[in-house]
Design goal:
The structure is a single chain. The chain is an all-alpha fold. It has one domain. It is about 70% helix and about 5% strand. The chain contains eleven helices and two strands; from the N terminus they run αααααααββαααα. A two-stranded antiparallel sheet has the order 1-2. Helix 1 packs parallel to helix 9, helix 2 packs antiparallel against helix 9 and helix 3 packs parallel to helix 11. About 0% of the residues have low confidence.
């Protein structure tokens, strides 16, 4: 029961944030302004940083099952590194979300609700994927090299296909089992048309968001394995980054196409973590260096994009 306490605290913390988000920050379906999006982004970032204090406490008091024998300070650095990795790799996810909303013609007042439901699915599905990944790393020798090569492939594929996201479609293998209407039907997910029960465009967008999140998780979760295989740190850093992704989307939604150099930052981070994952048994790269490299990569991409925007 002792080692369950951190997990109970984590889930309770996440549920509390979701309740605040849904019932306080977004009581009604209304368009999220840039000012509100900035406030919410800062709110979720601060909470992610505050949780690092709990990380330190859990590892300092041995409340967590510390299989890797991490010192409290090490655990905090790994958590923050994993958080930054997930946040940076989620940039591509923001582009895809924008395309999904455009494809299904979802008005801005309904977009937050869809992303809110999407995070509920992510909490469950990412826990499953992380568990499977950790089992594979533990049971299959050389699995870290496989994960590293997969990330390497993903990096070059992402860099090569700049317009790849334009070709994203809904998961038709799943969609064929449902009867769909292309209308919104006043924000409902299920309704009746001509006496028949049908799923609306909102439901179609939700299914597509969940599907694409699973695809992106296949990249981001192995990337965090390059930092640590501690289940608690992997899951908490992953989910806190996803929690802040929704408000970050509304903050950046009008500027996504302008951050042209962020893809190179993501490319550099993917290359770094793939090499780190594949050479983990030979070279130990300090976590402070990983954190510094990720921070510099993101800062360089944002700064370069900003200079380009100002020069136009």
């Amino acid at each position: 029961m002792q080692h369950l306490t951190p997990w109970i605290v984590l889930i309770s913390y996440l549920l509390a944030l979701l309740l605040i988000d849904f019932f306080v920050l977004h009581k009604k379906n209304r368009v999220t302004s840039v000012k509100r999006a900035i406030f919410e982004t800062i709110f979720f970032i601060i909470n992610a940083l505050l949780f690092s204090g709990l990380i330190y406490y859990f590892y300092d008091t041995s409340l967590v099952a510390n299989a890797n024998n991490l010192e409290p300070a090490q655990a905090v650095v790994k958590y923050l590194t994993g958080y930054l990795i997930e946040l940076s790799l989620s940039v591509d996810n923001l582009f895809v979300i924008a395309i999904i909303f455009t494809s299904f013609k979802i008005p801005r007042q309904y977009q937050h609700k869809l992303l809110f439901l999407g995070i509920l699915g992510a909490i469950i599905f990412r826990a499953i994927l992380i568990s499977v990944g950790l089992i594979l790393l533990d049971k299959i020798h050389g699995m870290s090299i496989v994960f590293g090569l997969f990330l390497l492939f993903t990096a070059f594929k992402m860099l090569k296909k700049e317009s790849e996201h334009k070709d994203i479609e809904e998961p038709k293998g799943v969609m064929k089992f449902f009867r769909f209407s292309k209308e919104l039907h006043d924000g409902k997910y299920i309704t009746k048309v001509n006496g028949k029960r049908v799923f609306t465009a909102l439901f179609g967008a939700l299914i597509t968001i969940e599907f694409t999140d699973l695809l992106f998780a296949l990249d981001s979760i192995p990337a965090i394995f390059a930092v640590t295989t501690d289940p608690f740190i992997v899951y908490s850093s992953n989910i806190f980054a996803i929690m802040g992704l929704r408000s970050l989307y509304f903050f950046l939604s009008n500027m996504l196409e302008k951050f042209v150099y962020l893809k190179y930052s993501v490319f550099a981070i993917l290359i770094f973590v793939s090499v780190k994952l594949m050479t983990a048994s030979l070279i130990e790269i300090p976590e402070w260096f990983s954190l510094l490299f990720i921070g510099i990569s993101l800062s360089a991409g944002i700064y370069s994009s900003t200079i380009t925007i100002k020069s136009k």
